[in-house]
Amino acid sequence: MKKIAVAALFAVMTMSGYAQSGTNSPYSQYGLGVLSEQSNGFNRGMNGLALGFREHNQVNYLNPASYSAIDSLSFIFDMGVSGQITNFKEGNTKVNANNADFEYAVGGFRVARHVGMAFGIVPFTNIGYNYASTNNLVTSSAPTSSAATTYTNTLSGDGGVHEVFLGAGWQPLKGFSFGANIGYIWGSLNRSVVTSYSDAYVKSLARYYTADVRSVHFNVGVQYTQHLNKNDEMTLGLTYSLGNKMTGDAVMQDISTDSQSSQSDTTSYSIGDAYRIPHMFGVGIMYNHANQLKVGADYSFQKWSGILYPTYISSNGQRDYVLRDGVYQNRHKFTLGGEYCYGEYDRRFLRRVKYRLGVSYATPYYKINGQDGPKEYSVSAGFGIPIINSINNRSILNISGQFVRTEATGMIKENTFRINIGLTFNERWFAKWKVE
What we know:
Protein name: Outer membrane protein
Signal peptide: 1-21
CATH topology: Porin
Structural class: mainly beta
Number of helices: 3
Keywords: Signal
CATH architecture: Beta Barrel
Organism: Segatella bryantii
C-alpha cells in the first residue's frame, strides 16, 4: 500500500509540471480569471453535475464523501484534454479563436472497507487574452501641421491558478458518508496594459500587473443515501470549502517611456497578500433508478462579496495601488443533468454505453466599471464508452460536447463550442495471486 501511495503522489508531482488549462476570453482579465468548471470526464457530459453522485468506477472529487464508494481491488486514474472554438462578438465585429489544453489528472483507490482515497491536479482559474484597439487623439504637443494623433491600447494577460490535492472518504454508517480534500493552490497572474502613440513626441505608457499566489485549500463533503424501494434511491450531497488568504505580493509597475530618448520612468507599487479565495457552499441531489437512470440537480454558492481587490487609482494627480471593495459579488450556479445506461455489465456493447446530458446557469463573480459581469449559459451532451479488450474491460472513454454562451448587456458576447475527452483507466491492482 505504501508503494502505491508513493507512486500516486509521484505521478501528481510529475503531472504538475505539464498541466495547463487556458482561455481566450477577454473577461479573464478580471478577478482571478475565468473560473474553471472543476469537473472531470464522467460529469462533463452532464455539465459538471456531481454533488449527489456516488460512482464506484469514477473519481468524483467535487464531493470527497463519494470516495467511499470506489470499488475494492481497483485503481482508477482519469485524465482529460479539451479543445474549443470561441466566437467573440462586439457590435458588428466578430472574431474567432481556438485553443486546446491538458485539463486534469486524478486518481483514486480503496484503502479499507468503506474507505477510499483520491489525489490529483486540477485547474482553479484561467487567464489568457490578447487584444488591441486604436483611436484618435487630438494633441497640440506635436510640432507638425496636423494635430491628429492615434493611440493604441494593447491588453494582454496569461497565467492562472492550479490545485493539487489529496483526499479521503469514509462511510461509517450505512447510507452516510463524509470526506475531505486538502489541497495546495498556486499560480501566477500576469496582466498588462500598454498605450502607444503615433506621435513620436508623446510618451508611451505601460502598466504591468503581476502576482505569484499560493495557499492551502480545504474542503469537506457529506452524502446521505435513502433507499426508497428495491430499485430506487435518493442521495443528498453537501460540500463546503474554506475561504482564506492567498500569500504573495500583488505588484504593479507604471512605466512612462520617452520615444525620442528611449528613457523610462518607472514607479512600482506592491500590496502584500492581496488575493483571497472565497467560502464556497454546494448542495446536490441525485435520483437513481435501478442503476440505469440517474438524474440530479446541483446548486453552488461562492461568497465573493466583501473580498477586496487590488486596484490602480489615479485622481487629481495622485496615483496609488490599493485594495478596493465593490469589485467582487457573490456567485450562484445551478445545474441539471442526468445519465442513462441500460446495463453496465450487459453483453451487448451499445447497452453498456452511458448517455449523458446537462444544462447550467451561472451568475458573474465580479463587476466591470460598476456593472455586473457576464452571465453564463451552457448545455452539454456526452457518452461514456466502455473499453473492452483481452486485458481490461472496465476502463471508460468519456467524450462530451459543450456549448457555452457568455454575455452581459453592452459588452462582448462569447459563444464557445468545446470538446472534452477523458480516459478513465480502471485497473485490478489489489487482487492476490493464487498458484495452482
